[in-house]
Design brief:
339 residues; mainly alpha; Rhopdopsin 7-helix transmembrane proteins; two-stranded antiparallel ribbon; 2 strands; 71% helix; 2% strand
């Protein structure tokens, strides 16, 4: 719908000023959040323990996160500050980098959700198939995503019509191909995000069922230990997984609607609001991860000179008689154990 300037208080100058102000607001918000989040990501990767299998997958997730915050977001900030990317030759590399890193992040989060579910309820199964279920999918995703978007953005035969004044230059031309666009946004996007959502819901339901059964049965030490372990792993998954769901599902659904029912107003909301939600997800993920890494959290607290209390169980001081075994114990007397 064309704007009737004679009957509207808005004119071209007003629109340009509003657009510039909107971009500057987004620029200052993102650049303010970028530095601490990027530094937190690098700190985690520097002190991350790759030996711990159950948290190893988070390290693989934080690598593309660091690249998004350090490289791709920097290009976006340049665009927001200048209002243009200036040269069309920069558009295809920007789109390829953007799509590759964000799609890799989505895939990894989906696989983290599935793998964490297996760790909670089928740990022996996944340990017997480490190459197939742990390292294999991660290696595949790290190869698949860049090859996919180099192919369909930079090599695919469509002729792009870029606008250097728009975010990611208005998007790639392959999205105009309905079949390829649906494959990417549904097969690679929405289906992965919904899988992450349903796995999180499934873990939550199973935790409640497990707790209900524990209340009805005779509680044992092993049962409580298993319950606490399940809750810990489940909370980690839900806290990080739902950040991705909130950041990506609205954006992907609106993109899908726009593909079938183009609307100027919807396109404006999509490019000016929802397109930036995934950045906030990437900015929050490092803080969510560090909360569940006690060793890294302690080192970060020490670096920032913050008080850090390592929680330990101290139910009571129990006095237990030590067995008289001269070859093992040098002090055959009562000892005090702190738990």
């Amino acid at each position: 719908m064309a704007l009737n300037y004679s009957s509207s208080s808005w004119n071209t100058t007003d629109i340009l000023v509003a657009s510039s102000l909107e971009r500057r607001i987004k620029f200052f918000i993102l650049i303010t959040l970028q530095t601490p989040s990027f530094c937190c990501t690098l700190f985690i990767l520097r002190h991350f323990s790759w030996r711990h299998l159950q948290t190893q997958i988070y390290g693989f997730l934080l690598i593309p996160n660091a690249l998004i915050l350090g490289a791709e977001l920097s290009i976006t900030l340049y665009y927001l500050y200048e209002g243009t990317i200036y040269f069309e030759s920069r558009c295809s590399p920007w789109i390829t980098l953007n799509y590759t890193l964000f799609q890799l992040s989505i895939f990894l989060m989906t696989w983290i959700s599935i793998q964490r579910y297996l760790f909670i309820y089928h740990e022996q199964f996944i340990q017997r198939h480490m190459i197939l279920l742990h390292y294999g999918p991660v290696i595949f995703l790290y190869v698949y995503c860049p090859l996919l978007y180099v192919g369909i953005v930079m090599i695919y035969g469509c002729k792009p019509t870029y606008d250097v004044t728009l975010y990611i230059c208005g998007g790639p031309c392959y999205s105009l191909n309905v079949g390829l666009g649906i494959f990417d946004w549904i097969g690679n996007g929405i289906s992965m995000e919904m899988t992450t959502f349903f796995v999180n819901v499934l873990v939550t339901i199973r935790l409640f069922i497990q707790r209900y059964r524990m209340k009805r049965a005779i509680a044992t030490v092993d049962g409580h230990r298993q319950w606490r372990r399940s809750v810990k792993l489940g909370v980690q998954l839900i806290a990080i997984g739902m950040i991705y769901v909130v950041g990506w599902v609205p954006y992907s659904i609106i993109v899908l609607i726009q593909m079938f029912n183009g609307s100027g107003d919807l396109a404006n909301i999509l490019s000016n609001v929802f397109a930036y939600l995934p950045y906030f997800q990437e900015l929050l993920v490092p803080y969510a991860c560090v909360m569940y890494m006690p060793e890294v959290k302690a080192k970060l607290a020490a670096l920032l000179k913050l008080p850090y209390i390592h929680r330990r169980q101290h139910p009571s001081n129990q006095i237990r008689p030590t067995t008289f075994l001269p070859s093992i114990s040098k002090h055959p007397m009562c000892t005090v154990h702190d738990h």
